[in-house]
Amino acid sequence: MGNKTPSNNEKCRIFYLDVARGFAILFMFAQHCMIVHEKTAGEGSNLLANFFVLLGTAPAAPVFMLIMGIFLMASKASLQKNIIRGIKLIFLGYLLNLLRFTIPLLITGTFGFQYATGETPTSMFLATDILQLAGLSIVVGSLIKNIIDNKIIAPITIAAILLISPFLWHKFGDSYLFSVLCGNGKNVYFPFFPWFIYPLLGMYLSRLLLDMPRKREYLKELLWIGFSIIIVGILTFDIFPVGDYHRSGAAIHLIIIGLVFIWLPICLWVSNKYGDKNEILNIIVFWSENVTAVYFIQWVLFGWSILIFDANNQNAHIAALIGLVVLIATHLLVKIPKIRNAFSWI
After folding, report:
1. What are the residues facing 330 on neighbouring strands?
2. What is the C-alpha separation between 108 and 258, in angstroms, rounded?
């Protein structure tokens, strides 16, 4: 989840990817407002809440991670710099945990506070979220970068991760290290296995998706591959464990991969149709170019909003309204150069 603003030439080359990631950020807001404030955390029968949470699944975190993998593969930075950047993202993830939930929950004075899945201020600090996943993925991805070009190694590795991950989820007890890797515990939202498949897939497809002269041809092929993968995922539901969004078997992730493969050509079409002169798309791209700042600030605002609105205590429409306010506030804050530049060290 990089935060570097590309040059004008680079921006033109990756405009459709910025659009894809920018819309993923918008959908992320939709999901977060429901899981923080809606009465059932978007898991009840309310259509609006369920729809908002659905938006934040396939076209959000997987898109972030896949695009991160694309640019990690294309990066000219040294192994040392990439590893240091990965460690910085992991640190930023725990800093975010402290600021968004641990401190607000401690302020309430209710250490037994029940947030969504029964978390506490301490467990929320130790949560493994997408920044930790991103940092660890950059470290591991940088170490194996030289072999990802192989046409066989990457697909076999992705398939192996999907097949083996469910057997690792409860293998190592309460060990925190293995929880981060394998997904044990409620506070591990994005375990490395199986979520590393998305940056790995992005690295594998990087040359194709950044081949600007032939991108339309490649993405058209990707579109049909996406539909095919979704069908395979649906047909294998009874074979592989389903689990939940954070810990799912191969069938669910095949469907998500298929949806991401469909999403990218759609974003290319939107980019080509409206271009970088469209004001809405420029806002979307601005969020993408400053994704780390946007992600960090919106979560801090959502976290502190529980002091005003409490957690999981609103109907879906009020939760959506809170999300809109957080979206606008985040945008205005990131527009301030000093705040935006505060994340330039990542």
Report:
1. none
2. 43
